[in-house]
Amino acid sequence: MKKSLGAKTMLYPTPVLVVCTYDNEGKPNAMTAAWGGVCCSLPPCVAVSLREATYTHGNLMARKAFTINIPSEQYVKEADYFGMESGRKEDKFAKTGLTPVKSNMVDAPYIREFPVNLECKVIQVVELGLHTQFIGEVLDAKIDDTIQEKNQPIIEQIKPLLFAPDSMNYYGIGKQVAKAYAIGKEIGNK
């Protein structure tokens, strides 16, 4: 028996993404967002949805560029802080001690200490109600040398954060369950 909960955004888990932009004065800003993910393979694109009231929303509209930064578990405190304070009032990089690095490809900074960084140019903006979705074409993906093998990320070493919106908790990843595009062959071969 299943119980109806009504219309809810129960997509589990959601990624913890830190969106970085520059403001009008060129000050770097970071904001944690969970409403985002991959939206196209070719060209490679990601989407992030933000409320208009956020400082980052205005920066994105003005600069048309952002980075997506994937924090590891060791940076859960900093990632949470980035989502709690506004860049209008706080220099979040000064408070956290993390390092903004000027992107090579877009007019936005990325976070040196976070293991994965995607440099994106805004190619489409979609108004959806409470949120605006920014679709960004990924112009470059950066990953720490220590957590990749043959240019492929090792997710167990990245240790990305996951977010459960209803319980408002962060989680880490579990162990590998199966190999994609392989385990299903067991059914297809019956």
Describe the structure.
The chain has 190 residues and is an alpha+beta fold. It has one domain: Pnp Oxidase, Chain A, CATH 2.30.110.10. 16% of the residues lie in helices and 38% in strands. It has 5 helices and 14 strands. A 7-stranded antiparallel sheet has the order 3-2-6-9-10-5-4. The protein has a 3-stranded antiparallel sheet with strand order 1-13-14, with no helix packed on it. A hairpin with a 6-residue loop joins strand 7 and strand 8. The protein is globular. The relative contact order is 0.19.
CATH superfamily: Electron Transport, Fmn-binding Protein, Chain A
Report the CATH topology name.
Answer: Pnp Oxidase, Chain A
* Strand portion: 35-45%
CA distance, first residue to last residue:
30 Å
- What is the number of helices? 5
Domain module count:
1
Any idea what the radius of gyration is? 18 Å
Q: How helix-rich are the residues, as a percent range?
A: 10-25%
Low-confidence stretches: none
Mean pLDDT: 94
Shape: globular
> From N to C, what is the helix and strand string?
EEEEEHEHHEEEEEEHEEH
Strand order of the largest sheet: 3-2-6-9-10-5-4
Keywords: Flavoprotein
Organism: Propionispora vibrioides
Cofactor: FMN
Protein name: NADH-FMN oxidoreductase RutF, flavin reductase (DIM6/NTAB) family
